[in-house]
Write a structure and sequence with these properties.
Protein name: Decarboxylating 6-phosphogluconate dehydrogenase
Structural class: alpha/beta
Pfam family, one: NAD_binding_2
CATH superfamily of the largest domain: NAD(P)-binding Rossmann-like Domain
Strand content: 5-15%
Distance between the termini: 39 Å
Number of domains: 2
Oligomer: single chain
CATH architecture of the largest domain: 3-Layer(aba) Sandwich
Largest sheet: 7 strands, mixed
Organism: Nocardioides aquiterrae
Strand order of the largest sheet: 2-1-3-4-5-6-7
Order of helices and strands: EHEHEHEHEHEHEHHHHHH
Family: Belongs to the 6-phosphogluconate dehydrogenase family.
Number of strands: 7
Keywords: Gluconate utilization, Oxidoreductase
Number of helices: 12
Helix content: 40-55%
CATH class of the largest domain: Alpha Beta
């Protein structure tokens, strides 16, 4: 298929490569001309055959809202916009309504896979009508892993991003549990090699996971995480998950505690947050205040 892709950073750039490797034609636009295939959104849209499909991968909030609003002026009836960023589901509802007035379809898609997605594939959680999702299905099939990794979460706008939001809330709690266990093992004057303990858990235990693999990779490079500051940011989904849980009267104590722990990390150099920051850098290339581990970006 032919598809426009707006935003060619760490995620978007790798997605463009994976789509092209699968035989699709991608016209990419980015504010950085060194990354872009087209000089402007208008040029990108003009180069796409109708019905046009444009996938947006820019930061959530105003950058995404402004981009979709501009695309609403450039696209026409029967065209389609995919928001693959980390937008809040309520933004999806507003964007879908705005585009629907012009006869333009909308699909929201939560994307998980970080900097490893180009190689391993991306987990995709989308929301939208059956008809609109079908228009993008060739791209979904190219981006997802060979086995599984795709779900049409619901037909209402926002269903995909709501599912991705809950996924990220669970991720917060999982990382916090590993991090607290690491700090406890480090503190005890009993265990000689904490990194090997974590490595041993990767096979046969009920807590094995990709996050555990990534923490072990970080510990292999810096056994006591001395080179990394115990400071971890949050990208918004954890807050939205807790807010949604409050609105729906659903108790989420582990997720809420992990979010508050990140807030604490910005006040003190928390040892547990060294582990959280290391895992975030490993799976998503999120900045740390140190030299980067394998596959990560240097921090400030």
């Amino acid at each position: 298929m032919d598809i426009g892709l707006v935003g060619l950073g760490k995620m978007g750039g790798n997605m463009r490569t994976r789509l092209r490797d699968a035989g699709h034609t991608v016209v990419g636009y980015d504010r950085n001309p060194d990354l872009a295939d087209a000089d402007s959104l208008a040029v990108m849209v003009d180069r796409l055959p109708s019905p046009k499909v444009v996938w947006v991968m820019v930061p959530a909030g105003d950058p995404t809202r402004d981009t979709i609003r501009e695309l609403g002026e450039l696209l026409g009836e029967g065209d389609l916009v995919v928001d693959g960023g980390n937008s809040k589901w309520t933004d999806d509802q507003a964007n879908a309504a705005m585009l629907a007035e012009k006869g333009i379809g909308f699909v929201d898609c939560g994307v998980s896979g970080g900097v490893w997605g180009q190689q391993n594939g991306y987990a995709l959680m989308c929301g939208g009508s059956d008809e609109d999702v079908a228009k993008v299905r060739p791209a979904f099939d190219a981006l997802k892993p060979a086995e599984g990794g795709f779900v049409h979460a619901g037909k209402k706008p926002g269903a995909g991003h709501f599912a991705k939001m809950v996924h990220n809330g669970i991720e917060y709690a999982m990382m916090q549990s590993y991090a607290e266990g690491w700090e406890l093992l480090e503190k005890a004057d009993l265990v000689d090699n904490v990194a090997e303990v974590f490595d041993s858990w990767r096979s046969g235990t009920v807590i094995r996971s990709w996050l555990l693999d990534l923490l072990v990779a970080a510990l292999e490079e810096d056994q006591h995480l001395d080179k990394i500051a115990g400071w971890a940011d949050d990208s918004g989904e954890g807050r939205w998950t807790v807010q949604a849980a409050i609105d729906l009267a659903v108790p989420v104590p582990a997720i809420a505690a992990s979010l508050f722990a990140r807030f604490s990390s910005r006040q003190d150099d928390s040892p547990a947050m060294k582990a959280v920051a290391a895992m975030r850098n490993q799976f998503g290339g999120h900045a740390t205040r140190t030299e980067p581990p394998v596959g990560g970006d240097a921090g400030a």
